[in-house]
Write a structure and sequence with these properties.
The chain is of the alpha+beta class. Helix content is about 55%, strand content about 15%. Helix 1 packs across helix 11.
Length: about 400
């Protein structure tokens, strides 16, 4: 009497993993070099997305801190193409608008500034001299890096506050009460130095003085050249629509209104476009890595013909052999994917830290990296696995 039929052999998922790991460990150097190609592609993609996300996070932080409700009003051109001017009372007219919560202005002064009175008059360093209201800094969300800002007392005294770039060009990095600059034929004490002002970058290359002293000593006519205005977020568009007619009722077409925060938002959009391009380059690197894995697996099949034949002779089916080599290919790609994800994350963190950005790595990036390695590993191993499965058991006899 014959015994029961033996159960058909099975290759469970954990068996596939164990056999795949054994196959890779047999040739560690080749496995590492092949996985390196995948790692480069994944690292490039993770780093590109991570750096771009960190940049956008930094822009978002800036916008949250600085606000998006600042509008800048400046004079445009007349119908004849000449430079227009803002009326002297335009600041007060803007302040009368109901939704406006803060307003200030600067006026360009016809004067040059030098580090001392011995410098050639043509060496101005491109610095503008601006009369500024005492409430300017709060309106534009500026910060004093060193010293103090103009107040009512300093505004009537020969004192200046330097923009960040202006201080650098003049070689002044500290304020101690004894530093002065030669401005309009007068000595002006340096009272402070500003940090860069993201929403008003024109102030970075400017020398700011009080409105009263500009009128008293430098012949300033009191007309503003740029007005800075803040209103409630929900009212920004409505205020923007009425500002030209409010500032210059007779010639509203000669007034230009801009929103400085739009420049920061545009920078984020530019970063996104660049990210798409770099992702394509990362995809090319991943493709090259996949070709390397496929090449490695084809060579492995040729070198292990005796092993394949012996397994077939001992009862392994074609499906078992196919799964074995496909599993090795996926594991090899996964090894590169994990290494690449770690490397890309480290590059993102290091770059963000060097720029003072908050590190940001979206979770979908890691999920995408895992998915990409599985797809690349499966595609790269499909042909070698099918070739190994088609090999007849008699190959063991000829290969041993």
């Amino acid at each position: 009497m014959s015994g029961p039929e033996p159960a058909p052999s099975r290759l469970r998922p954990r068996d596939v993993v164990r056999v795949g790991v054994t196959g890779l460990r047999a040739r560690p150097a080749r496995a590492v070099l092949s996985a390196l190609g995948i790692a480069v592609g994944i690292a490039a993609m993770v780093a590109v997305v991570g750096i771009s996300a960190s940049s956008r996070a930094q822009v978002d932080e800036q916008l949250d801190a600085l606000g998006t409700n600042l509008l800048t009003v400046a004079a445009g051109q007349t119908i004849g193409g000449e430079d227009a001017a803002l009326p002297a009372g335009s600041v007060d007219m803007v302040a009368r608008l109901g939704p406006v919560t803060a307003v200030s202005a600067v006026g360009e002064v016809d004067a040059s500034v030098y580090r001392n009175d011995e410098i050639d008059a043509t060496q101005t360093n491109g610095l503008a001299v601006l009369a500024a209201g005492t409430d300017l800094l709060d309106t534009v969300s500026g910060v004093v890096d060193n010293g103090r800002w103009l107040d009512d007392a300093l505004g009537a005294y020969p004192a200046v506050v330097l923009g960040a770039n202006a201080a650098e060009r003049m070689g002044i990095d500290e304020v101690d009460g004894s530093v002065a600059v030669w401005l309009g034929g007068e000595w002006f004490t340096v009272a402070g130095i500003l940090d860069p002002v993201p929403l008003a970058p024109e102030l970075d290359s400017s020398v700011l003085i009080g409105w009263p002293v500009a009128e008293a000593l430098l012949g300033f006519d009191g007309a503003p050249t740029t007005i800075y205005e803040r209103s409630a977020e929900s009212q920004v568009d409505a205020v923007r629509a009425v500002l030209p007619a409010t500032v210059n009722p007779e010639n509203p077409e000669e007034v230009t209104v801009s929103r400085p925060s739009d420049a920061l938002a545009a920078r984020a959009a530019t970063d996104e476009t660049l990210t798409t391009l770099l992702l394509a380059l990362g995809g090319v690197a991943l493709l090259v890595g996949g070709i390397g894995v496929a090449n490695t697996m084809v060579i492995a099949v040729l070198e292990r013909r005796s092993e394949i034949g012996l397994r077939r002779a001992l009862g392994a089916t074609r499906a078992h052999v196919r799964r074995q080599f496909l599993g090795e290919s996926v594991l090899l790609a996964a090894l590169g994917g994990v290494g690449g994800a770690v490397l890309g994350g480290a590059v993102t963190a290091a770059f963000a830290a060097s720029r003072g950005w908050p590190p940001a790595l979206p979770s979908w990036v890691l999920a995408g990296a895992a998915g990409a390695t599985i797809v690349v590993g499966a595609l790269a191993g499909a042909y070698p696995a099918a070739r190994a499965a088609r090999m007849p058991p008699t190959a063991a006899l000829s290969a041993v």
